[in-house]
Specification:
alpha/beta, Immunoglobulin-like, 5-stranded mixed beta sheet, 12 helices, about 20% helix, about 25% strand
Length: about 650
């Protein structure tokens, strides 16, 4: 029995040992076969030579792929290019969408057409922008475009620049509420453009802005600008609390409130919008306010006490206290254009504001329209037809209303200037102009004045149909001056005539008034002229100071009263003798040093004219011209005193 078990043990041990010899060598290791051979030299008895089929970098024989890179499988038709098969793959007919099946297979015949949404196709391709199109240059181009993008691609300015030239920096732009930082090559404002860079391609430059923090200056506007005004007020040019901040002003009606705060009240309450521009570090914000302007008020014009004063633009220098005692200022002159409108160029802004300021003192300001001598041609044409008059009158009324004048004064000197009197229709047209202009003015404002300057003397009145035109005129300013003669030495503005001895004709002031009354002009519409100037002629006879003697030259030269006083009256008692003509009620001077005869007006002659005017129930007196008085206002004071 023991022998039996021994034999069985021996046989089993032999089998085990025999089996172990296939996997271990004499060096006692486990064989690792590559292509059927271990590195120890032992061959794999089970190896069958074959072409390796690598799956995930390894053949089933144990051989590894030296080129294998571990990766995420991309299966196409259920197989990765590494050889791995997709265990979930189901064989199918490909359904290509945009050239690709959901299994990953691509359509070899697919041609992609981009469909852009917000400038981008789902394939990832971005659409060419308008800016890219603008900046495309032709091959070999020598001229390029530089685009200045001022704001959000909405406003471009393009300039052309030659190759390797530099683009000129544009003027600094402005934008309400923003500060300009500069021109940049990108919209984000990262790269500031260097304007010294030579241009080699078309480029787009972007204006970059920084929003200015808003500061509400309404409080300052309310401090500066009253709610209701009737007098001038100051519109500051700098912030009174910060001298570095500048202020600028815009008025919706600068003829009523100027940008400096001058107030010219109208005839009714008006609302004017003032806009304050606050300029801080070169950048602006705006604030507006409505202001009520109270209307001007005027006293009734009293017959026999009314003073009209012409004030020429070339002499205007503001008003003295006595000048503001005039009831009406005739601002002189506007002119007539070839197209029947008013030329206001001689009355600049400073003159208009200064002259019309008298309205705040209750003084009416009338616009005087001149056409003298050859300049009267446009006046003649404007009055010549109903159509021309309509254009002319509309413009007159518009100007009166715009600037707040109290009416107009016609100084057409003279109707009939260009044609013989008997053949001329100017007198008829003058009357038609007065009638139609009166209607238009009174419809606009019944208080508007329509007056006219008409020459005195024995001849001038013949150019007018006085009875008819006076119906439509509120006052006629009788130009009772310049009445001297060229052949003799006479007064130019005497109250009474002394024919052949002191006056050229029998038509001095008194006689001129009587002619006008005889021709149908109501006495209360006649205004007597007073001259703030004189005239001299030389040489003359020394007898009686030259008055009534022959004129050696027939020429008279005009002198303002200011010059008469400073150059001659201050020498009375020396070489100058002062005379009073008790018949003509007129003064004159004789200068023996220069053999001058000077005819003029003084306080005494003014007082006599005022007395005559009141005694005869006339409308008042008229002065030509306020700016010719002496610096101390001697003649104006005499007018005021005599008209009390």
């Amino acid at each position: 029995m023991k022998l039996k078990y021994f034999l069985i043990f021996t046989i089993c041990l032999g089998v085990i040992l025999s089996s172990g010899c296939n996997n271990k060598c004499s060096n006692n290791h486990e064989h690792f076969y590559i292509e059927g051979k271990c590195e120890c030299g032992e061959t794999d008895p089970n190896y069958v030579p074959h072409i390796h089929n690598y799956i995930e970098g390894k053949c089933e024989c144990g051989e590894t792929d030296p080129n294998y890179i571990p990766h995420i499988h991309n299966y196409i038709e259920g197989k990765c290019e590494c050889g791995e098969t997709d265990p979930n793959y189901v064989p199918h007919v490909h359904n290509f969408v945009n050239g690709k099946c959901e299994c990953g297979e691509t359509d070899p015949n697919y041609v992609h057409v981009h469909e852009f949404v917000d400038g981008k196709c789902e394939c990832g391709f971005e659409e060419e922008s308008e800016i890219d199109k603008l900046l495309k240059d032709e091959e070999g181009a020598t001229e390029f475009r530089v685009y200045f993008n001022y704001m959000d691609d909405s406003e471009y300015v393009m300039v052309t620049v030659s190759l390797n030239k530099v683009v000129v920096r544009p003027n600094k732009p402005s934008r309400d509420g923003f500060k300009f930082l500069g021109w940049y090559t990108d919209e984000s404002g990262t790269n500031l453009y260097n304007f010294n860079t030579p241009i080699t391609k078309s480029i787009m430059l972007y204006a970059i802005w920084e929003e200015i923090p808003f500061v509400d200056y309404t409080y300052l506007l309310n401090e500066i600008v009253p709610n209701v005004v009737s007098e001038d007020f100051e519109l500051y040019r700098r912030n009174p609390y910060n001298d570095d901040i500048h202020l600028a002003w815009v008025s919706s009606d600068p003829q009523t409130i100027s940008p400096t705060g001058i107030v010219i009240p109208g005839d009714e309450t008006e609302i004017v919008t003032l806009t304050m521009e606050v300029i801080d570090d070169g950048y602006s914000t705006f604030f507006s306010k409505d202001v009520e302007v109270e209307p001007a008020t005027f006293n009734e014009l009293r017959s026999g006490r009314t003073i009209f004063g012409y004030y020429a633009s070339y002499n205007f220098n503001g008003y003295t206290e006595d000048q503001l005692k005039c009831n009406v200022i005739n601002l002189s002159f506007a002119y007539v254009t070839y197209d029947y409108k008013l030329d206001m160029n001689s009355l600049n802004e400073q003159i208009l504001y200064g002259a019309l300021a008298a309205r705040k003192q209750g003084v009416r300001v009338v616009l005087s329209i001149q056409g003298y001598g050859d300049e009267s041609k446009n006046f003649k044409d404007a009055a010549s037809t109903p159509e021309n008059r309509a254009i002319f009158i509309k413009n007159i009324v518009d100007v009166v209303d715009k600037y707040h004048f109290n009416g107009v004064d016609l100084d057409w000197e003279y109707p009939g200037w260009f044609t013989p009197l008997k053949k001329d229709s100017d007198a008829e047209n003058y009357t038609a102009l007065c009638q139609e202009l009166n209607t238009a003015l009174k419809e606009k404002n019944p208080d508007y004045l329509l007056t006219a300057a008409i020459p005195g003397g024995a001849e001038g009145f013949k150019r007018y149909n006085l009875a008819e035109c006076s119906k439509y005129l509120d006052y006629i300013h009788l130009m009772t001056y310049d009445l001297e003669a060229s052949s003799k030495v006479y007064h130019h503005t005497a109250l009474y005539a002394n024919v052949g001895k002191g006056t050229a004709t029998d038509a001095a002031v008194k006689e001129s008034v009587e002619i006008f009354k005889l021709k149908g002009v109501p006495a209360e519409k006649i205004v007597v002229g007073i001259a703030f100037y004189g005239k001299y002629t030389t040489p003359v006879s020394s007898t009686n100071g030259g008055l009534g003697s022959d004129s050696k030259t027939g020429k008279y030269t005009t002198l303002t009263y200011a010059r008469i006083k400073s150059n001659f009256l201050n020498r009375v008692g020396d070489t100058v003798t002062e005379y009073w003509d008790s018949i003509c009620y007129a003064p004159y001077l004789y200068d023996s040093a220069y053999n001058y005869f000077i005819t003029y007006e003084n306080a005494r002659s003014i007082n006599e004219k005022a007395k005559y005017m009141r005694k005869n129930g006339l409308g008042g007196v008229m002065i030509w011209e306020l700016g010719e008085d002496s610096s101390d206002g001697e003649l104006m004071a005499a007018v005021v005193s005599s008209m009390r």
